[in-house]
Structure formats: C-alpha cells, structure tokens
Amino acid sequence: MELARLPISASQRGKLISAGYTSLSSLSSISPSTLAQDLKISEDEALEILRVVSQGSRLDKRDGGHAIVNGAQTAWDMLHEEELLKCITTSCADLDDILGGGIKCKEVTEIGGVPGIGKTQLGIQLAVNVQIPVTYGGLGGKAIYIDTEGSFMLERALQIAEACIEDMSGHNDFLQKDFQPCHIKMQPKDFLQNIFYFRVCSYTEQIALINYLDKFISEHKDVVNIVILDSVTFHFRQDFDDLALRTRLLSGMALKLMKLAKKFSLAFKSF
Predict the structure, then answer these.
(1) Is the bond into 231 cis (omega within 30 degrees of 0)?
(2) Does residue 102 have a pLDDT over 90?
(3) What is the DSSP letter of 72?
(4) pTM for the full model?
(5) How far apart are CA 207 and CA 205, in angstroms?
(6) How many Å apart are CA 28 and CA 42, to the nearest integer?
(7) 237 DSSP 8-state letter
(8) Helices in 84-202 by DSSP H: which ranges?
(9) What are the angstrom distances between the C-alpha of 133 and each of 1, 91, 124?
C-alpha cells in the first residue's frame, strides 16, 4: 500500500513526505517519539499514524504484499538480459560508446558536470530521440521531462525535433539505392506532443511527483520509455540545514526511481 492511500489527513501526509517518509517500509521501525520529533507533532498523534501504518501493512500482507523476495536469477540469465536491454541514442557516437550503446532502459543514469556544460541540452535531445521510430532504430516511445530549475527550452526542443527529422530523411536517401525507404510521418509538433512536461518548484512537490509517477506511467506504460529529471538535487541544495534528512530523502527517491525503471522497463536520466 502506498502512503497516499493511507486513511490519514492531508496535513499528516504532507508532513510525512516532507520528513522523508515516502513509503510504509520507511515507517516500519520508527518509534513514536522519533516520528513526533521529525514531524513536530505530539507523541499521541505520531502513535495514531503508526497504528494506521501497521494496519495498512497487514492489509498488504493479506493481499500477497508479503512476497518481498523473488526467485533467484543466474548470472548467465542476468548477462543475457543486460545484452537485450534497449538503448536510447544520445546522437553522439563517442558518448554512446562510453555508455555501452546509449542510455539503457531498466537503469537509472546520472550525468554530472559544471553549469553550462550541456546537461539540459542532452536531456532535451533524449526526450526527442526516444521518439525515433523503430524502423529507424529507435524505440518509438514518449518521454516524461521533470524540470526543477525552469531550464527546459521549447525553442531548442523544436530545433532538435526538426534536426531529427532531417537526419531520418538523410537516412532515407541513403537507403534508396538498395532498399525501399520508410515514409516519415512525424512532424516537429508531434515530437513536442509526445513529451509530458512537469514543472516542480519545491522539494516536496518533487517527492510527491516521484510518488505519482507509478500511477501516471501505469496509465501510459505502452508509450513512456524515458523519464528525465533535470535536476535531482536543485531543491535540496537550498535552505537544507538537516543533512541527515536531505540524505534520507535523496536516497529514498533514488530507490523509487530504480524500482520504477525495473518495473516499467524504462530509462531514468537525471542530472
């Protein structure tokens, strides 16, 4: 059971998320006094929240939620599975080689660098490249772009989409000698329509959105192939005196992203 489904008030749920408690498992071994201190509430209220959490955990087990451990996998199977992973090209052959073919699905890839090095540019490029049709070696999917800094540029996305179509047209011209070329049906506006954009203005909004992604991707699981988070730490670099809380929040978010990547076979790209 997700935290959002617990029968507690919106205020209590907001305090839990803000304090880094984003799942039932994160509350499984916490004491009422510690929870009261973290949420700045009374111990009686904390005890009541933990009682509700305990009931939710029991319901999960009754519905089969206790099956935490999955069957073992051989190393050979894991290697074979990794070789079959789909990749999204970065449009840079050297970078693709470094990454083992591109940005891989079922994995979380983080790229760091100084401001102005081109991280946002790469994110927009990937949001376009994931839409390259299968006939041209792409995935023919859609992208989710989470913008925490307000740096997403529509004009640049449109330019990259136009360049992508030109590249596919050039590929067609090359194939005309020996093969029947594919007809390009996509227009630049189609690329923009296939990017789901979320603007996040605080770390609490960011945590809430990450928790909402499971539901959103479930509704679009046949089309979404990449989630771009630009950037993951922006809201955690400002006015955060409690470094332990910051670490707990970021670690919980990373685990959530990895689970989603595995569950939906999609790529997560963060900066």
Answers:
(1) yes
(2) yes
(3) P
(4) 0.77
(5) 6
(6) 19
(7) S
(8) 93-98, 119-129, 154-175, 188-193
(9) 37, 15, 17
